[in-house]
Amino acid sequence: MKCKPCDGTGKSKCADCNGDGLGYGHGKCMACNGSGLIECTQCDATGKVSLFRWMNLKKAE
Question: What is the value of pTM for the model shown?
């Protein structure tokens, strides 16, 4: 099943910079290296999850 948080891309928005790629003082974000994206932790950056895990993610929405 396609991972809902990353929409199957394996990447999710960086929480440190809110996807902007800019960190404190408007320099490059150190968590995502300025890309604004990090590996999705829900699917381990694969973009796919098992049916059981997908149903649990659906409940959490």
Answer: 0.68
Q: Determine, yes or no, domain membership for 46.
A: yes
Tally the domains of the chain.
1
CB under 8 Å to 42, separation ≥6 — which residues?
A: 3, 4, 5, 6, 12, 49, 53, 57
Q: What is the DSSP string of 26-59?
A: GSB-TTTTTSSEEE-TTTTTSSB--HHHHHHHHH
Does a structural domain hold residue 6? no
Q: Half-sphere exposure (CA, 13 Å, Cβ side) for 23?
A: 9
Residue 58's pLDDT band, with cuts at 50, 70 and 90, is low
